[in-house]
Amino acid sequence: MKRATSEARERLKSAMARLAGGDRAALEEIYRATSTKLFGICLRILKDRKEAEDALQDVYLTLWRRADRYDPERASPISWLATFARNRAIDRLRVGKVRGGSVPEEEAAPISDPAPLAEDMLIDAERDERVHTCLEKLDDKSRDAIRTAFFDGSTYAEIAENTGTPLGTIKSWVRRGLMKLKTCLEVGR
């Protein structure tokens, strides 16, 4: 699951870079990958399907004009776009573009949104990046054992069996690797 998420994030980063270079096909790829989530954000804030569709259109128009401002070092593409969607929806509330039946601006803030806040998503993305950077600094055996155990969900016994390595050795690799990982993460604070 994590690997698929990472691959999807990389495809989206690549599409963002291509869009910044003027590749129109990249916009379609980004739309297909993100429109459902971004529409959900707009709809939760605006509570009006037509308004949410209009806000979503604004998001992609803005993206087309500003794709060159995306910095993959600062945020994941979906975090950046989710912030766009939230801001466009709130902007529509502020300027009074919303039709009757939607919520007044004062009520927009407390609307329940099960998605993490953009700030939390940015913090999570930064934390993920630090973890992966620190993992890359570990020796191959510790790094592979930790990834297999924690990202793929394998038990130490399964790792030992699959690699033909004694169970105690796997446990040592993971324990030493986790200690080094902890030190690296603490230094990066």
Description:
- This is Sigma-70 family RNA polymerase sigma factor.
- Belongs to the sigma-70 factor family. ECF subfamily.
- Keywords: Sigma factor, Transcription, Transcription regulation.
- With 189 residues, the protein is mostly helical.
- It folds into 2 domains: 2-112, Orthogonal Bundle (Rna Polymerase Sigma Factor, Chain: A), CATH 1.10.1740; 137-187, Winged helix-like DNA-binding domain superfamily/Winged helix DNA-binding domain (Arc Repressor Mutant, subunit A).
- It is built from 9 helices and no strands.
- The longest helix has 23 residues, at 24-46.
- It is elongated and about 65 Å long.
Layout of helices and strands:
Blueprint: H1 2-20, H2 24-46, H3 49-66, H4 77-94, H5 105-108, H6 118-136, H7 140-151, H8 156-163, H9 167-187
Helix pairs in contact: 1-2, 2-3, 2-4, 3-4, 4-6, 6-9, 7-9, 8-9
Radius of gyration: 21 Å
* Biggest pleated-sheet summary: none
General shape: elongated
CATH topology of the largest domain: Rna Polymerase Sigma Factor, Chain: A
Mean pLDDT: 80
Looking at the overall shape, the CATH architecture of the largest domain is Orthogonal Bundle
> What proportion of the residues form beta strands (DSSP E)?
under 5%
**Elements, N to C (H/E):** HHHHHHHHH
What is the number of E strands? 0
Percent range for helical residues? Answer: over 70%
Structural class: mainly alpha
Counting DSSP H or I runs of 4 or more residues, the number of helices is: 9
Cα separation of the termini: 27 Å
CATH level 1 name of the largest domain: Mainly Alpha
Number of domain units? 2
Query: What is the CATH superfamily of the largest domain?
Result: RNA polymerase sigma factor, region 2, helix turn helix motif
Uncertain stretches of 5 or more adjacent residues = none
